[in-house]
Amino acid sequence: MGRSMIKRLLNRLFTAAVVLLAAAAAPAQKRALVAVPDLPGYKTLKCDFHLHTVFSDGEVWPTTRVMEAWRDGLDAIAITDHDDYHPHKDDVSVNLARVHQIALPAAERAGILLVPGVEISKGDIHFNALFVTDANAFTGLDLTSALTAAKKQGAFLFWNHPGWRGPTVWQPVIEAAHKDGMVHGVELVNGRTFYAEAFPWIGPKKLAILANTDAHAPLPAEQRLGQRPVTLVFARSADLEGIREALTARRTVAWMDDHLWGSAELLKGLWEGAVKPLTAEARLEGRIVRLPFRNGSSIPFEAQLVGKPTWLTGKGTIHPQSESVLALRAGPVPPGGEEAATVELEITNLHPAPGENLRLTLPVRIAARK
Ligand SMILES: [Zn+2]
Ligand SMILES: [Zn+2]
């Protein structure tokens, strides 16, 4: 290799190193705009209340969780490191109060609400405690003592991944904690897992529904919100007190992989805020009735005709941030002259109760003949 060639090679390597350094120094500058409608009287906050860092068994620094939340279009997060599991303790402090202290300035700069939290981890049963005032108070305690201490701090407590290492069952220890007012919610969604067996508990046990990532590794940038699990919180005010009040009042919806779980009232509110039918009248053309909708939100709605009018069938996706046409088809012999005043739809990806889809009645007049 000649000297000039070596010089050129060194130059090139130097340039590559400078480019790499610049890339490493510049944090992500793009925030996803996630359109979820507010409900009358409530601001809809997109939240992830279960995240880990190197302060327990995660792989990232606390400020990284804030940066990811900003990038993905979230409004609020809680960083919830384990109280009793510190595999990095030889290199990183076990003082869990530091997690919040380190992340807070970054959260304030980014406009992300940071809820102080910790994951109370006792054997296979884990609870997240939000709004804690002393994150170090639970280390070394048993489950009941830790939950009692968290309750004394005024924490909001929810059961994490309820079927993590065994069947998803409402265990005696959970029942006892629930009786003592120490189970306020449950993760219906943890990561990509939906705990179907936990859904029937929501109503009778008066639990808030939560959907969180429980991320330990860095979160991938290409995942849009909705693929990244998110808890929608319907808050009277976009601040920590607003979040606490909404969680306590159980005004939450879980959103993961284009499915949403929550009360019929909240799901209907999301539909009404997101989707406008673009016609109040439609007629049979050939054997097809076309119903156009505009969906201004980032949520897709899978609509299926059920019930009226009985002489039509059909289903289709009302796509996010788009106009979509739902094409309904008449049977071989359309009823002559018959008219329907309403259309009854089921939204098959919105679930108000186990085994149920949201049902809607739309005031659309459909004429079978001109
Ligand atoms: Zn856990
Ligand atoms: Zn966890």
SSE order and pairing:
Layout: H1 3-25, E1 43-48, H2 62-72, E2 76-79, H3 97-110, E3 113-122, E4 125-130, H4 143-152, E5 156-159, H5 172-179, E6 185-190, E7 193-194, E8 208-212, E9 230-235, H6 240-248, E10 252-256, E11 259-261, H7 264-274, E12 275-277, E13 281-283, E14 288-295, E15 301-305, E16 312-313, E17 315-318, E18 322-330, E19 339-340, E20 343-347, E21 350-351, E22 358-362, E23 365-367
Parallel strand pairs: 1-2, 2-3, 5-6, 6-8, 11-21, 13-23
Antiparallel strand pairs: 1-9, 3-4, 4-5, 6-7, 9-10, 10-11, 12-14, 14-18, 15-17, 15-20, 16-18, 19-23, 20-22
Helix pairs in contact: 2-3
The structure holds zinc ion (ZN) (2 copies).
3D architecture notes:
- By secondary structure, the chain is an alpha+beta fold.
- The chain has 2 domains: 237 residues, TIM Barrel; 93 residues, Immunoglobulin-like, CATH 2.60.40.
- 23% of the residues lie in helices and 29% in strands.
- It contains 7 helices and 23 strands.
- Helix 5 links the parallel strand 5 and strand 6.
- Helix 2 packs parallel to helix 3.
- The longest helix has 23 residues.
- The N and C termini lie far apart (85 Å).
- The relative contact order is 0.12.
- The model has no long low-confidence stretch (mean pLDDT 92).
- The structure holds zinc ion (ZN) (2 copies).
- One zinc ion (ZN) binds next to strand 3.
